Amino acid sequence: MSKKPLLTIAIPTYNRSSCLARLLDSIIQQENYCHDELEVIVCDNASTDETARIAKSGLDKIRNST
């Protein structure tokens, strides 16, 4: 991101890959979604399911710095 985001969404999660996938899709589908003004932070507490993979795949959809 080149400028500070207008909004930061922080998502703490543990073994909730299906919920995380739906949540990220929901954020993107918002009518007023503007990726330049939005930052999404996913905080994964060492999940053993697909949570880490889902979070990484979300980077393709939501432009964040890593």
Automatic annotation (TrEMBL):
Q: Which GO terms describe its molecular function?
A: hexosyltransferase activity
InterPro entries from the xrefs? Glyco_trans_2-like, Nucleotide-diphossugar_trans
Sorted alphabetically, which keywords does the UniProt record give? Transferase
User: Has UniProt tagged this entry with the keyword Transferase?
Assistant: yes
Protein name, as recorded: Glycosyltransferase
Domain Glycosyltransferase 2-like as annotated: residue spans? 8-57
Check the record and name the Pfam families matching this protein. Glycos_transf_2
Report the Gene3D superfamilies cross-referenced here: Spore Coat Polysaccharide Biosynthesis Protein SpsA, Chain A (3.90.550.10)
* Domain of life from the UniProt record: Bacteria
Decide whether keyword Transferase is in the record: yes
